[in-house]
Design goal:
Chain B: Keywords: Cell membrane, Membrane, Transmembrane, Transmembrane helix. The complex is a heterodimer of chains A (about 220) and B (about 290). By secondary structure, chain A is an all-beta fold. Helices cover about 0% and strands about 55% of the residues of chain A. Chain B has nine helices and eight strands. The chains are: A mainly beta (about 220), B alpha+beta (about 290).
Chain lengths: ~220, ~290
């Protein structure tokens, strides 16, 4: 439960989630509060930028492109916006979190892990827990490939929402062990609202460069 | 009594032709240089705070600081009538002398440069070097500062670090830890394994891949010993390690599986005769 309450002349933001309570006193004249889904790599503690979605294995013929729908975890960000600045106040989520290692222990990366089924149409999702990812997979290599996971750099993630949360992504398979992933800045359906990006709010310059999956995709 | 500032400034200080004015100019230029260096490096550090990791940020700011200070020093030297071209000739001989005299300083300096380029350690890393375990606070030109886990400051010369075995606990993305958990012989080991796996799966930072392993490792004197091996992000492993063991213990006990106490069964070859003195005495009296 999220609430902002004015008592004794002080404005208090309060969020209760299970047994945990997060509370801050807000001092503002013109500031506004924005609540929207954010890149799901912040809980329970921010340790990585990478998101890995594992799904049922798919085998792709050389030269083919297939668009599928996956589910991805959702985290909710609370922002404070004023005329000159925007700041992250709180991030919370309903679901549980799990992390994994993508690549070898020596130079692999820790990534937020999520398991999803593969859907041919937009699946129904549990609000505030999961979102829908439209993933377009292209096999640009010269051989049949099996794909069962995709890893993204979440700093490039573009999230849109209305009744449910969505993101659009691409995966370009270059060779048997190499693929490039990226996010597309477009809503899944017309009229969806674009989320305030957490990484933009944290003032880290975001260069849209995608992520190169160097350690395979199975 | 009148003070003539010009006369005072033109007074020789007693070293060659250097006057007080030269000395003042030298000090002013040097002070200005150090001040500018401090301001610039401070602003660079502030500007890079969100853009670079702390180790790179400190390296860049230090480099900028020393470049400006050295530049100010070279700029100020002519005030002391130091002919830099003359230094070039004399530099070779002086360098040789200084080199011999300050071998350890030079070797520390060179080691420091290699440490900065090779980068076996970074600021914030948890390391062990020649018996000192802690986190790296600073990598300087001549030495490295390590803060031990009990808060003690240790300055290690760079040469010692460079020639020692360095254990960096967080260089790799993930690291493994293990527990040995004993259960009683009458407990169901398969159930204990299932419960332990469930607890590990519920922890966010117990990595999905590499997968944890839980298995019966050996049949001990007091009970069945399970081996639990878990991978965690290198920078989070200690928290995961301390958190999970207690959770596993609690969950096992909640499901009726207990840790065994040390016990020993003693068998007597001819059986054991129990003597009951009171009973015998009663028999005799009767």
């Amino acid at each position: 439960m999220v609430e902002a309450e004015r008592a004794n002349g002080l404005l208090t933001y309060r969020r209760r989630c299970g047994e945990q309570t997060f509370e801050r006193i807000l001092v503002t004249k013109t500031g506004e509060m924005i609540i929207n889904p954010v890149e799901p790599v912040n809980l329970p503690k921010e340790i990585t930028n990478y998101l890995q979605v594992e799904f049922s294995p798919m085998v792709l013929e050389p030269g083919t492109t297939q668009t599928v729908y996956l589910k991805f975890p959702v985290e909710i960000g609370v922002f404070l916006e004023s005329a000159k600045d925007i700041e992250v106040l709180d991030v919370f989520a309903n679901g549980s979190q799990k992390y994994t290692l993508y690549g070898p222990q020596t130079n692999g990366v820790i990534a937020r892990y999520h398991r999803s089924a593969v859907y041919s149409e937009i699946p129904s999702v549990e609000c505030f827990c999961e979102g829908v990812m439209e993933l377009s997979i292209t096999n640009a290599s010269r051989e049949w490939v099996e794909v069962s996971q995709v890893v993204f750099d979440s700093t490039d993630m573009k999230i849109y929402y209305n009744d449910f949360v969505t993101t659009t992504a691409t995966m370009n398979i270059i060779s048997a062990n190499l693929a490039e992933t990226d996010f597309v800045d477009a809503p899944l359906r017309p009229g969806m609202v674009k989320s305030v990006e957490l990484y933009a709010a944290r003032k880290i310059p975001v260069i849209n460069r995608g992520y190169l999956m160097e350690w395979g995709f199975t | 009594m009148n003070f003539n500032v010009t006369e005072i400034l033109e007074m020789p200080v007693g070293i060659g032709d250097i006057t007080l004015e030269h000395l003042v100019y030298f000090i002013v230029i040097l002070t200005l240089g150090v001040t500018v260096a401090r301001i610039v490096s401070k602003n660079v550090r502030r500007a890079l705070t969100d853009r670079l990791p702390k180790s790179e940020r400190e390296l860049v700011t230090k480099l900028i600081y020393y470049v400006i200070v050295v530049w100010a020093f070279v700029f100020a030297l002519p005030q002391l009538n130091v002919d830099l071209s003359g230094l070039l000739v004399a530099g070779g001989i002086v360098g040789l002398v200084i080199g011999f005299a300050s071998q350890s300083v030079v070797s520390n300096l060179i080691s420091g440069l290699f440490l900065m380029f090779e980068r076996p350690i970074k600021i914030g890393d948890n390391i062990n070097v020649s018996g000192v375990t802690g986190s790296v606070e600073d990598i300087r030109v001549l030495s490295t500062v390590v803060k031990m886990y009990d808060g003690i400051y240790v300055r290690i010369p760079n040469e010692k670090i460079f020639t020692s075995n360095i254990t960096n606990y967080v260089q790799n993305a993930a690291r493994r830890f293990e527990y040995e958990i004993g259960i009683r012989y009458q407990d169901d080991a398969d159930k204990a394994i299932r419960i332990t796996r469930g607890v590990i799966a519920s922890h966010p930072f117990a990595l999905k891949n590499p997968a944890p392993s839980v298995y019966v490792d050996n049949l001990g004197d007091d009970g069945v010993n399970l081996m639990v091996r878990i991978w965690a992000p290198a920078r989070e492993w200690w928290d995961v390690r301390t958190d999970l063991l207690w959770r596993i213990k609690q969950e096992l006990e909640a499901n009726g599986i207990e840790m065994p106490f040390p016990q020993r069964t003693v068998w007597f070859a001819d059986g054991l005769e129990v003597k009951n003195r009171a009973a015998r005495k009663n028999e005799r009296e009767e």
